[in-house]
Amino acid sequence: MRMETIGSYEIEYCGILLPNDEGWGAQVAIYGPSTNPMHRNSIFPEQRVSVEATFDSEAAAEEEARKVALSMIH
Fold first, then answer.
1. What residues contact 3, with CB distance under 8 A and at least 6 apart?
2. pTM check: above 0.85
3. Largest CB tally within 10 Å, which of 20, 50, 64, 72?
């Protein structure tokens, strides 16, 4: 899972291999600011996004996941 810090948000995103050779799905988690450095404030729990779409490669799914995450925090 890739991770980026954008402003005060941490985003994690990845491509997940779907069952039955259906291709790749896009998955995202977003964490917001927290006053406790030992605790991550989950504002969007890890889940699949763009569920109606499948992708031919892990890289393409990651690209879609990142795009969705950026649109959610901007």
1. 10, 11, 12
2. yes
3. 64
